[in-house]
Structures are given as structure tokens and as C-alpha cells.
Predict the 3D structure of the following.
Amino acid sequence: MSQIPVSFIAGTGLSVPEKILTNKDIEKIVDTTDEWIVSRTGIKTRHIVSEGVLTSDISKEASEIALKEAGVSPEELDFIILGTVSGDVSFPATACYVQEKIGAVNAAAFDITAACSGFLYSLIIGNGLFAAGNVENILVIGAETLSRITNWKDRNTCVLFGDGAGAAVLKKSKGDKGILATFMKSDGRLSQLLMNPGSINGQVVLDSKGEKMLPFINMQGREVFKNAIRSMEEAISNVLEQGNVSIEDIDLLVPHQANVRILDLLAERTGIGKGKIFINVDRYGNTSSASVPIALHEARKEGLLPEGSLCVMAAFGGGFTWGAVLVRF
Ligand code: UT7
């Protein structure tokens, strides 16, 4: 990929529901302990939507913050791309509901299904649209209400996830700041390890033991754990190579927030060191496609990504899907 960027991130935003679920709260729902959750995942709290609040609602709030910072009005948007696996309805795209809610009357809107890689996939696709020409502004969102597809009787998964939305506004690049390199990949052979079989016409999906899967998030944690580290490591080294930079040149790594142990190992394996990896999984849990844009927004607000800084974002999720983006702020 060329190192002359076609787009840059002009604004970011986030929205998380007010309601907080602590580990102590979860102790009352399933057979678990605060000690187990913190030591195995690093998660202390997660935000959960109230009844009736949809993915498009929290997307709207995050988008309006990002648009304001970018100085872009909703009417000026050419595209809205939303990564989600917990959209409002099966169809139309949740991006279309966001379009209506923010009044982006001139945009084309669509969703991307790439689970926890959904925001990065959307960002990479958005960046590609600039290369195609005649595009000025794109709103990219990662948003989930995973609490609606979580099996609250399954202690293996219900302690992990949270709800939230993050957004970024991409503008046509004029200088040398912006997206410098991108990488995305998937492996459908491993789809069974992390999936929501849902319920299409009552269709029954069987797991590898021949048992009926429930229409919630199903995950074989240990296998996912190993692949998450390996895949994000691959994606990060790929964009560093494309951008002709080394890990020492990176000011901040903003990875998908699934488990603090994954992040510690990723810091060790990539050599970036713990001080340069952004971590907020303790407060939000795993918010799937929302985790990278929420972390990105918080990192920017904390002043960790000043003008000229170099950042790598990386994600891994169901599919399996994974990817990374190298960006100069
Ligand atoms: O976002 C997309 C990517 N997702 C991820 O990256 C998640 C990756 N996986 C993980 O983060 C970890 O595998 C988990 C946090 C999900 C699980 O941690 P683990 O250290 O791999 O535990 P485990 O699944 O191997 O389970 C160990 C034990 C089991 O008991 P036995 O069989 O050893 O007696 C589980 O039944 O821990 C038990 N366990 C729990 N105990 C208390 C599982 N969940 C819980 C729980 N509370 N909530």
C-alpha cells in the first residue's frame, strides 16, 4: 500500500449506556466470583443497555460527538459504515437507522459483519472508498448491544461482554497524516469456535458434539484466546512492514479489548511494551466491534495520540476475522 494517505481520522466519539454491571452483580446471576473474572480477564465492570435501547441509539450518540469534532454535518456524509453483530433487526442495516436518526440524508449506509473486527473492517473499506474517488466524508461506527445476544445462564461467556458504541469520521486526506497501511484477513474454517447461531426460521445449528446450539454467543474460549494473539501479532507486523516502520516507532497500540491477559501477551510478543498499549477492558469488558473505536476515542481524549503520532489499531473476532490499521495522527 502507498504511504500517501487517502483519508484521515478527523473526529472520534463514544457512547456507553449508563447502567453498570459489576462482577459482584454477576456473582448473583451465575456461579462465578469477582476474583475469577478479574484474574482470568481483567474485567471489573461493563455497561449494559436498558430495555428498549438499540444499537442504533448508542451509535447515534457516538456519531454526533465524532461529527462535531470533525466539523462535518450529517448532510455532508457520503457513507455510513457500521460494524455490528447485534444490530437493531435482521434487516435493514442498522447503519440505515443511524442515517435516519442523525439526518444524513445524502449518505449511502450499510453494515459490516466481522464481529470484533467490525470497526477495523469498516474503517479499511471506508478508506478504500476514498481511493475510488469523489468522496469527502465517511462515518465509520463500531457498535454493539451484546447483552441482547448473551446467554445470561452461561458463566463461560456472560461475564465477558458489554454494550457500547464508538465512531470515527474519515475525511479526504490533504497532507501526510492519515491511514498509512491496512491489513484484513479471515478464516471460515474456524467459524464454529465463536458464533451466534441465531434463529433463522427456527433453523437448528448443531455444535461439534452434535448438540443443539442456543441462539446466543457461543465461544470456545481457550482456542479463541490462542488464535487472537497469533492473528493480531500477524496483522500488526504486516502493517508495520507495509508502512516501513518498526515497533519502536509506534506511539500507541490500540487493540481489541477482550482480555487483559491477551493484551499483556500481545505487548510482550510485539515488543511494544506495556506502557504503549491502551487498555480499558477493565471498565467496559469486551464490546466486540465497539472496543477499538471506544479505546481510540479515550486514548485521543487522554492526549496519547497528539498531532504527528503513529498508532496501530488491531482486532480479532468471530469468523475468524482479524486486521490492523497503521495511522498517522
Ligand atoms: O472478542 C473476540 C475474541 N474473544 C476472545 O479473545 C476471548 C478469548 N478467550 C478468553 O479470554 C479466555 O479463554 C476466557 C476468559 C474466556 C476463559 O479463560 P480460560 O483461562 O481460558 O478459562 P477456561 O475456559 O479454560 O476455563 C477454566 C475453568 C473451567 O473449569 P474447569 O473445567 O477447569 O473445572 C471453567 O469451567 O474456569 C471455569 N470457568 C469459570 N469459573 C468461574 C469458566 N468461566 C468461569 C466463570 N467463573 N465465569
